[in-house]
Amino acid sequence: MRKALIVGIDEYPHARLRACINDARLIGSLLEKHADGSRNFDVEYKLNIPTKAELRKHISRLFDHDGEISLFYFSGHGYVDHMGGHIITPDFKLHDVGVSMDDLLKIASHSRARHKIIILDCCHAGAMGTPAFGSNTASYLEKGVTIFAASMDNQTALEKEGHGIFTKLLTDALAGGAADIPGEIRPGHIYSYIDRALGAWQQRPVFKENIVESVCLRKVHPSMPLNELRKITEYFPEPTYLFQLDPTYQNSVPGAIPEHVAIFRVLRRMHVLRLIEVPDEEYLYYATIKSKCCQLSSLGVYYWNLIKNGRI
């Protein structure tokens, strides 16, 4: 089972936000289904939760779970003080502003779910997973915990054009921007996508993880059909194999061989995806005309091994 609790809070007294409900709904809609429409996460929305007690109750229910994934997403206000970081609810008071990030991490760490994923789009979110005191070892990440934070612990998280800057990049990543060639989107892919999009002078996203296996958060359509991708081990029996090309692979050349033309269509897709390369040639077409060899790139060798070992 894959559970997701999606929390967005706009309605804060004297400090109203504008993007959190929009962001929560957008994230939830992406997590509910894979790109082909098949079921992904069982999503529960909690929008404008009024109290800290109610938020804690829902967090506890989420992580009281022994399935594959428990995922918590929060968009709202965050706060940090000498006691650490907090995610804030509308009933905040001085010295009791919301749910402690340390407490949130403790609840997640005690979960029996195989993967515990926490995503915070709020100011000072990077305090998540950093103990308030050096002796507070409960705040360190237990196995299976992954944290995405919109900003460092001393930074604010900004909104732009109706969405949080971090969540907009996160949704773009989940929509396919962070997908690998088979169409799988994993936490490391997402962080790399967001990290490269935000400059050194902007809010910096934080990624913390303690895992022994990665997990796919969403699937989109592969960059090339998997039955074609798997042909890489057929065309290249060994990673160092040199595939000899010649003009018979070109449909426009007299003497073209239909079987070769069909292979070339697949090789061309592999070339576009940087799985194969031809030294000194930018276009695969000229490699056929000049009867050159193509070979696996470093990325191609990586996928060759995944396919050979039955991982794709």
TrEMBL record:
Domain Peptidase C14 caspase stretches: 1-178
SUPFAM superfamilies in alphabetical order: Caspase-like (SSF52129)
Coiled-coil region(s): none
Membrane spanning residue stretches: none
InterPro entries in UniProt: Caspase-like_dom_sf (IPR029030), Caspase-related_regulators (IPR052039), Pept_C14_caspase (IPR011600)
Signal peptide extent: none
Protein name: Caspase family protein
Species per Swiss-Prot/TrEMBL record: Terrimonas ginsenosidimutans
